[in-house]
Input
Amino acid sequence: MTNYLDEFPIPAELLPPRLFGLLSPVGTESDLRVDVTTRFEVDPYGPGREHVHMIMALASDQGPGDLSKYGETGHGVVYFSQPDVHEFGEIREFQPSVSGLDYIVASQGGGSFFAYHLAEKVWIALGLTPRVLGGDAQKLVYDDLSLPEFGVAEGEVSTEYHYTSKRNVNWSMSNAYLRRYLWMRGAYGVRLFFYQTLLPDCVQIRDLMQGETHIVLNPEGSWYDLDIREYEERLLIQVWAIVHAVEPTLCPEPTAEGLVWPGVDGAMTHARADALTATTPVHLNDQFLERYEQSGFFDTIPAKVGQAWYCSPSYLGQWSFTDCVRLGRNMVRVPLRELYKPKPDREILHAHAHVLTPEKVAEFDPSEEHIAGKTGRLASELLRFGEAFGAIGQSFGDDREPVDIVGLSRTEINANGWLHYPELVRLAQVAPLEMTEQAFLSRCKSIHEIWQKIPNAFLRNLLVRAGHTRADIKDLGSLKLLQALTNVLERLNGDGEDLDSFGAGTDPDDLTRRNAALAPLFINNELRIGDAHNAGETLAQLESLSFDIASVNQGFGKALDHVFDGVIAAFSHMNTQAEALLDR
Output
């Protein structure tokens, strides 16, 4: 393509950054954002003034173009004003264009009001979906929901002009998608623009003016029209130009073809993976899952099948990982053939970025429990709690079902897993060994919130049935209610009593005696509000749980395991005591 910077009369080193950019070609990097329509002004009547009106059209040749053929550079919109119609069907063949060229952004204005939308041909050809940002932004954003890829194209939908512009308008587009569209159309992306600014007086520009106070440089058939004049002791420059800026070539995209996987001989391709008959597993660090867990667009619900926990991310029925099985604390095993099943290459590349070498895999203990397994055990203990304590309550006329007590239903979990329990899904998200203290404290809070659903009123009713007065227990919170109830059960079981003796006798110590089995619940409660304390208090709480705090130098992952196991053990102890009483 033409080197516009070399051909432009003003030396490139004197050009303002915006004009330099308007005259420059667009590179092939896929992560670039390319301006495709601009209506911009700053300090419109002051010394720092700068104006840009730019639209992008599609041209079949690579230029340079003849500026005289295009009047749109002056207005900065595809269609100025509106058709003047006086007869029926007069605009039957109406096809807005940029002097016969298609455009990227449809724009219309009449001097005061301007409107902008991504051209219909563009969003339909690329399969984009629009969404609206309201408020002061007033923007349209187009996404490719098949991948997903967000913010493929975006820009303001309207502006007004009355001496000054109400808002600047800028439409930008992903370079990868813009080039794909140009490639599909076999066309170049062409900027048609008007630019104005004030420049400091300098010798190089004065030489162009040849001693005149005003000069217009517009060679016949040229791609530019340059107006330079003296203005307020500076030089006012105005440029009208047509610049072929984007070639119809695709951006280089990373591909999953030819990847080398540790432990697998040779490069892997889709065809080779599809032909695999023997199971060829690869192992990934489970941080591979974080990208999907942190976005509401993906389904990352863990599922237990037999003794295995599956964690296969999927996206709205468009694509899915399959047969991803958790192994050990922080490892995921997946067959290579399943990994290469239909999905965007970038997802396979994402998995490859987290692949573990055989030497690294050997460092993992495959029998060590992972975060999903711990969450599953906690859910199981809560279900036991609801059933056991619900049975005790029902014997005294309290008809609460287990789901009313713990907020979980065994029937629902057996039928649909954790589909309707997002709090369990969040708790089971990746917990790396090197997790930060704040992430650790946040997870402690999540653990507490899951069992906190147990109604205090239910626990108080059981203690009243055990012979304690409401006056004695009215100020007890959930933790002390659970502790008192556990003390009652331990006393009855120690005496070999059955359920009929539940309220036969009381012991004031039930309400005050500390129960070591429930200590993890109390400590987890302190940790969940750890944000309000000094960092040193976190370590003190962990020490009180007999945790070796020296290991937190590498992260708080093991600390989370220790606390989690303690909470599960506390509920297991309560459930065992309740079931022992019921079994007599």
Notes: The CA atoms of residues 271 and 340 lie 9 Å apart. The mean pLDDT is 93. The chain has three domains: 4-22+29-82+101-246, 270-363, 371-583.
